[in-house]
Amino acid sequence: ATVIRREDYAAPAYWIRSVELTFDLDPAKTIVASRLTVERHADAAPGAPLVLHGDGLVLLRCLADGESVSFRQDDGLLVIDNPPDQPSFTLEIRNTCAPEKNTQLSGLYTSGGGFFTQCEAEGFRRITYFLDRPDVMAVYTVTLRADKAKYPVLLSNGNLLEQADLPNGRHMAKWHDPFPKPSYLFALVAADLVCREQRITARNGKEHLLQVHVRRGDLDKTEHAMNALIASVAWDEARFGLPLDLERFMVVAVGDFNMGAMENKGLNIFNTKYVLASPATATDDDFAGIESVVAHEYFHNWTGNRITCRDWFQLSLKEGLTVYRDQEFSMDMAGSASARAVLRIDAVRNLRAVQFPEDAGPMAHPVRPDSYSEINNFYTATVYEKGAEVVRMMATLVGRAGFRAGMDLYFQRHDGQAVTCDDFAQAIADANPGSALASHLGHFKQWYAQAGTPRLQARGSYNEAARRYTLTLRQSGAPSPGQPEKQPGLVPVLMGLVAADDGRALPLKLEGEAQATGTERVLVLTEAEQTFTFVNVEAPPVPSLLRGFSAPVTLDDGLDDAALLVLLQHDADAFNRWEAGQRLSLGRLLAALPGDADLPPLDDAYLQALRRVLRDDTLDPAFKDQVLQLPSEVYVAEVVGSEVNPQRIHRLREQLRGQLASALRDDWVWAFEAHQVREGYRPNAAQAGQRALANQALRMLVLDAVASGDTVWPGRAYQRFKDAGNMTDRFGALSALVDAQSPLAEPALARFHALFAGDDLVIDKWFNLQATANEPASGGGLQRVKALMQHADFSLKNPNRARALLSGFCRDNPAAFHRTDAAGYVFWADRVLELDAINPQLAARLARAMDRWRALAEPWRSAAREAVARVAAAPRLSDDVREIVTKALD
Ligand code: DPP
Ligand code: ZN
C-alpha cells in the first residue's frame, strides 16, 4: 500500500465547480449519470491530464463537451490524458455500482431494504468517478429515481426542487444544495421511512424545517434526538453566532453504519444508536450520547462544512474543534458547575483509556499526522479527543471572549474555503494579540506536530520563614514512531495553592507582581524547565496543578497521601478533587503490584476519605459516583507502562473493589436507598446522577453479598431488574448480577433477551454485557463469546453487533482476553481476518486491540506478537488492516 505524505500536498490540476447527478436506484445495479463542470487550475498547463478517482465501479461512457474522449483506467483511477484544452469544459460520465454487494458500508449501500450512503473519507469514489478530495468543492444537483412502493422517501442534500411520479411504479425527486461542498459531504437516502418534524424560528426570524427520519415503528423513539437538534441550533447561534443556513435540516437513522454519525450537508446520516431512545430501551448514557452526537454533527455544519479541510491530514481542524464544541454544548446543557465537572471527568477518563494508549503505541501520531496509508485508520482518539484538548488549551489561553473573537475571525477569513490547522490557530492568535498564545504560537503548535503524551513534572518547596513557595515545572516527551526527540511545547497549567492545614484557597502572588491575582491562575510553561516563585504565602501549601485537566499530559507532582487527602477533601476544583481520589486508589494498586500477594487491607484514612465523600450532602450524586469509581484496568496498565500483567491488575483491582464493597457496606445501603428517583423518568443530569450512584451502590452490595454467601441483595437486584421502570435501572440491576456472577445472572439474562427480542439496540447491550462480563476464576469468558457468535441474533455484517461482542471482548475485557493459553489472541486473529473480508474499516478497529502488545509481560507478549504476525502474513489483507498490523510489528 502506498504511503501518502502531508508534505506532498499539491492543489489539483482541475477543479469541479458543479455536479449534476442522476441515480436510477436498484440494489443489484444502480446507474449513476454524472455531469461535471470542470475548470482548469490557473497554474495547470492547458490540456493537462485529468485524473479522477474511482473504486469498484463499472464505467459505461465518458464524454467531454459532448464528444467521446479517450481514457484509461489505472489502479482505481480514471485518467483522461487529453481533455479539452479550454479553461473549462463539461464531463459526462455514466457508470454502475452494486449497492447490495457493498458490505464495506462505504459509498452507496443497502440496509434494511433501503439505500444509504457514507462518503467520508473516500466513499464517493465508490459511487462515481470524481476528484474525491476535500479541497474540490462543488455545487450539487441530484435527481433520484426509484420504485415508489419500496422507496417512498427520496432524500439528498439541500432543498427539494421537484418530486413526481414516473411510469412503472417509479418516482423521482430532485434536490439542490446551494453551498459548494467537498464530495465527502454528499449523501442520498432512498427508503421506507417515517419522520418527526418540527418547524423552528431562528433568532434572526428565519424559519427552518427539522426532520428526523426513522424506520416505521421507531417514531416514538425520536423525541430526544429532535430536542437535542433544536437545542443545538439555539446553542450555536447564542454561543458562537452561527445560525442554521438551510431551509431544511434532516437527520436519518440507519441500522448498519460504520461510525456514530455523519455530517453530510443538510442530510446527517446517523447510526440508530445515536438517534433512537425511549426510557424503556435506552440508558442515561445512551440519552447523553445521542445529545452529544446530534450536536456534534450539527455543529459540523459550520466547523467542517462551511469551512472544510484542505486535505485529510487536517482532519482535526474539523474534528478536534467540533468535539470541543459538542463538549461545551453538553456542559452548558448540564447546567451546574458540578455537572460540568462530571462531564469533564468523563472526557478525561475516556482520553486516558483510549488516547493515551494510542499515543504510547505503534499507531501514535500527531494531531495533524504526517503520513498514512489508509485514511480511515486516522479517525482516531488523537485526532478527535486530543485535538479537542488542543482547542480547549487555546480557549484557556485566550479566555472565553477571546476564543469567540478568534472563531469570528476564522469565519471572516475562511468561510467557504478548505483550509489547514495552521489557518485555525493563526486566526485564534491574531484575534488575541498580546495573549500567551499569540506570543508563543510556535511553541503551541508543537501540539499539532508532536505525537506522544508529554510528561509534566512539578516539584515545590515552601520556605516558612520567607513565606515563599517555589514551584519548578519540567516538561519532556518520550520518543514515538518517527519522532525520536521532542521539543518543549506550550503547557497551560491552571493551578491554585491549597493550605495544607485547613484546605483554604491561598491568594496567589508571583514574585515581582504588585498584588495577588485571586486564588487560581494559569502558569504558561514554554521552556523545558521553569521556576515560579510565589510570595506572601501564609501557610504551607499543597499545589493543585492542572486543574480541570488544563493540558493533556501526565503529571508527576510527587504528592504524598497526606497531600492528596487534603485535595480530595478541600480542592476548590472539582476535577482535581476527583483526581486526588483516583490517585489514592491507583497508589494502592501500584504498591501491591510486585509479587503475587493479595491486596493488603485498606487503610482507614483512605476508607474514611471515600466514606466522607459518599456521605457529603454538599456534593452531587453524579460527582460522588465518579469519585467512588476506580481507575480502569486499561488505565492502570498504561500507568504501569511495561511488563504489564493484565491478570494481576485485574485480580488486585477486584480485591480493591471487594474491600470497598465490604468496608463501606452500610454506606452503600444508605446510598442505594437515598438515591431512588421518585418522580417520572427524565434523562437529565440531575436524575442520571442519582441513578448512577444508586446503581453503583447496588453493584457493590450484590458483589459483597455474593462474596459472603448472602442472598438478600442479589434477590433485591433481581426484583429491581424485573420491575424497573426504565432501562438505566433495569440494566444497572442486570449488570450488578452479571458482574458479581450471581446465580441469578443467567435467568436474568434469559429474561432480558426474551423481553427485548427484535429490538436491535437493546440486544446489542445484551451481547456487550456478556462480552465484557467479569471473567470467572475458572475461565470461560471466551467460551461464552464463541457460543454467542453462534447465536441466531449474531451477525458480523452489522457493525453495532460485531462491535458489541468482539470489541467488547477483545478491547474492553482485559482479564478474559489476555489468557495465558493465548486462546484469546488466536480468537482475535481469526475474527480480524474474517471481518476483513466483509468490512475492512471495522476489522482495522478490532485489529487495534493488540496495539499495546509490546507493553505486556511474558507469556502474553510473545503469544500476542505471534497472533499479530499471523494476521500480517495473511495472503489477502485490506490496506486498512495491513497498516495496523504492520505498524504494530515495526
Ligand atoms: N462522522 C464522523 C464525525 O462526525 C466523521 N466526520 O466525526
Ligand atoms: Zn465529527
Summarize the SSE layout with pairings.
Blueprint: E1 4-5, E2 14-24, E3 30-40, E4 50-53, E5 58-64, E6 67-68, E7 72-74, E8 77-80, E9 88-97, E10 107-111, E11 114-118, E12 137-147, E13 153-156, E14 159-165, E15 170-182, E16 188-191, E17 193-201, E18 207-215, H1 223-240, E19 248-254, E20 261-262, E21 267-271, H2 284-299, E22 308-309, H3 315-334, H4 337-360, E23 371-372, H5 381-414, E24 418-419, H6 421-430, H7 436-439, H8 441-444, H9 446-449, E25 455-463, E26 468-476, E27 491-499, E28 505-506, E29 521-525, E30 529-534, E31 541-544, E32 554-556, H10 561-570, H11 574-592, H12 604-615, H13 621-628, H14 633-640, H15 646-663, H16 665-674, H17 685-708, H18 712-723, H19 727-739, H20 745-756, H21 760-771, H22 781-789, H23 799-812, H24 814-817, H25 823-836, H26 840-847, H27 860-872, H28 879-889
Parallel strand pairs: 2-12, 18-19, 19-21, 22-24, 25-32
Antiparallel strand pairs: 1-23, 2-3, 3-9, 4-8, 5-6, 5-9, 7-8, 10-11, 11-16, 12-15, 13-16, 14-15, 17-18, 20-21, 25-26, 26-30, 27-28, 27-29, 27-31
Helix pairs in contact: 1-2, 2-3, 3-4, 3-5, 4-5, 5-6, 10-11, 11-13, 13-17, 15-17, 16-17, 17-18, 17-19, 18-19, 19-20, 20-21, 21-23, 25-26, 25-27, 26-28, 27-28
Bound molecules: diaminopropanoic acid and zinc ion.
Diaminopropanoic acid is lined by residues 120, 259, 261-263, 296-297, 300, 319.
Structure write-up:
By secondary structure, the protein is α+β, with helices and mostly antiparallel strands. The protein has five domains: 1-191, tricorn interacting facor f3 domain (Immunoglobulin-like), CATH 2.60.40.1730; 193-306, Zincin-like; 311-449, Neutral Protease, domain 2; 455-551, Aminopeptidase N, middle-beta domain (Immunoglobulin-like); 757-890, Zincin-like fold. It contains 28 helices and 32 strands. The chain has an eight-stranded mixed beta sheet with strand order 6-5-9-3-2-12-15-14, with no helix packed on it. Helix 3 (315-334) packs across helix 5 (381-414) and helix 17 packs parallel to helix 19. The chain starts with a strand and ends with a helix.
